[in-house]
Amino acid sequence: MLSTEHADLLKLSPSERILLAQDLWDSLNPEDIPIADWQKAELDRRKAAYQANPTSGRSWEEVQRRIIERHG
Questions:
Q1: CA 16 → CA 20, 43, 55, 58, distances in Å?
Q2: CB 3.0 to 4.6 Å from 6: which of 2, 56, 57, 66, for a disulfide?
Q3: pTM of this prediction?
């Protein structure tokens, strides 16, 4: 349940709430965000795979194109 103070935030427009969420996210330092051991292991695995074969990935443009093709 939200406190009265936090419930007032729900009175903001959707775009204002999005901007607030972005501002809150941007205010965090990377060390403030907890990462589980399994997430660290997955990031290490992906980094090692990339370093072993840097050309195996796809560009952001290609990823976007494939998403749009599949989901419109």
A1: 6, 33, 40, 34
A2: 2
A3: 0.51
Residue type, 5: E
The type of residue at 20 is L
Please check whether residue 40 is in contact with residue 48, taking contact to mean a CB–CB distance below 8 angstroms: no
Tell me the pLDDT tens digit for each residue of 14-54.
Answer: 999 999 999 999 999 989 899 999 999 999 999 999 999 99
DSSP state of 32: G
b/e per residue 45-66 (b: at least 16 CB within 10 A):
eeeeeeeeeeeeeeeeeeeeee
DSSP letter assigned to residue 26: H
Give, in degrees to the nearest 5, the angle at Cα 42 between 57 and 67. Answer: 40
